[in-house]
Amino acid sequence: MEVLIIFIRIEPSSPVPIYRQIIDQIRYQIATGALKEGDQVPSVRQLAGKIAVNQNTILKVYNQLCTEKVLKIERGSGTFVTANRQSIPVAERKKIVAKLLREAAVQAIHLDVGLEQAKEQLEKEYEAIKLLKNKTGAKDNE
């Protein structure tokens, strides 16, 4: 099986921790269909070398995404995208989204962005990602 090249861009000046930036970008690539279920992602060593971060950071990312059932590590074979939302209970999916939205709400308040503006931005981002996903032909398991 071919290991996919994934594009991760780290913003060192960002207040968002590096591991969080990587997690968010992998999730985004799955959401848009750039990474699909069954795709093999680079090894910890490969990705760490490619984006010049500590291997422990990538290990933390992969472990977090495995806990959330986004990735699956198969010993001896590699790490693969599962992203099968149907295998994650609805309550757990809601909890994951609630955590992310809480972080966004904190940032919005900190940056003095009103609730209506934040809702509007969320809707725009959601629709843009759905459109991109449809263009790539990714299946939708809502």
Shape by Cα distribution = globular
- Average pLDDT, all residues: 85
Largest sheet: 3 strands, antiparallel
Report the count of strand segments.
3
Which stretches of 5+ consecutive residues score pLDDT under 50? none
The share of residues in helices is 55-70%
- Termini separation comes to 28 Å
Instruction: Look at the structure and name the CATH superfamily.
Output: Winged helix-like DNA-binding domain superfamily/Winged helix DNA-binding domain
- The amount of beta strand, in percent, is 5-15%
| Helical stretch tally | 5
The helix/strand order is HEHHEEHH
CATH architecture: Orthogonal Bundle
Domain count: the total is 1
CATH class: Mainly Alpha
The structural class is mainly alpha
Fold-level CATH name: Arc Repressor Mutant, subunit A
Fold topology:
Elements: H1 18-32, E1 40-41, H2 44-51, H3 55-67, E2 71-74, E3 78-81, H4 90-110, H5 115-136
Antiparallel strand pairs: 1-3, 2-3
Helix pairs in contact: 1-3, 2-3
Protein model, in words:
The protein has about 140 residues and is mainly α. It has one domain (about 20-135): Winged helix-like DNA-binding domain superfamily/Winged helix DNA-binding domain (Arc Repressor Mutant, subunit A), CATH 1.10.10.10. The protein has five helices and three strands; from the N terminus they run αβααββαα. A three-stranded antiparallel β-sheet has the order 1-3-2. Helix 1 crosses helix 3 (about 55-65) and helix 2 packs across helix 3 (about 55-65).
Observed structural traits:
Arc Repressor Mutant, subunit A; 56% helix; mainly alpha; three-stranded antiparallel beta sheet
